[in-house]
């Protein structure tokens, strides 16, 4: 058995470096726009948006942590900040007292509605508009394949 690493070809290295650059620059662009225009981080927006798309605008904290790709500890700190702003409320799950629910308040819903257009405009500007329709489909397919390989349990939303 050969213990030597299987080095990337030049073409594979170019693709890898393009992806690494994307992973660095895209979060900066999204976070920058949200900080500038809405005074929130991209992670905070993901939490609010996740709640806004949940039935009854309510979800278990553990599920929200998976949805927003954050640890329960990080999520708890962020939800505390969002609670102080009046956008989120926490309560015990009446169906199972072992769980805590996060609920989007009416003020939180208003924040999502106010923030979403600018966020979508930035996503369109930096991700969608530079691509053809065929490239958008390819991006979707490539993103799903990489996500499935990196997250075989399927905890990321599609």
From TrEMBL:
Pfam families assigned to the protein according to its UniProt record, in alphabetical order: MarR_2
MF term (GO), any: DNA-binding transcription factor activity
Any single biological process term in GO: response to stress
Every HTH marR-type domain range: 16-148
Family matches, as SMART domains: HTH_MARR
Membrane-spanning residues: none
Protein name, UniProt field: Winged helix-turn-helix transcriptional regulator
């Amino acid at each position: 058995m050969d213990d030597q690493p299987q080095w990337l070809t030049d073409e594979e290295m170019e693709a890898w470096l393009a992806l690494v650059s994307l992973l660095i620059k895209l979060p900066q662009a999204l976070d920058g726009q949200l900080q500038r225009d809405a005074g929130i981080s991209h992670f905070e927006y993901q939490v609010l948006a996740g709640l806004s798309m949940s039935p009854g605008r309510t979800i278990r904290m553990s599920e929200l942590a998976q949805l927003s790709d954050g640890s329960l500890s990080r999520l708890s700190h962020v939800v505390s900040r969002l609670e102080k702003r009046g956008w989120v409320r926490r309560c015990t799950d009446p169906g199972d007292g072992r769980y805590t629910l996060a609920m989007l308040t009416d003020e939180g819903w208003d924040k999502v509605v106010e923030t979403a257009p600018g966020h979508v405009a930035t996503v369109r500007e930096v991700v969608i508009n530079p691509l053809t329709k065929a490239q958008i489909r390819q991006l979707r397919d490539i993103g799903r394949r990489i996500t499935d390989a990196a997250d075989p349990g399927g905890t990321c939303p599609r």
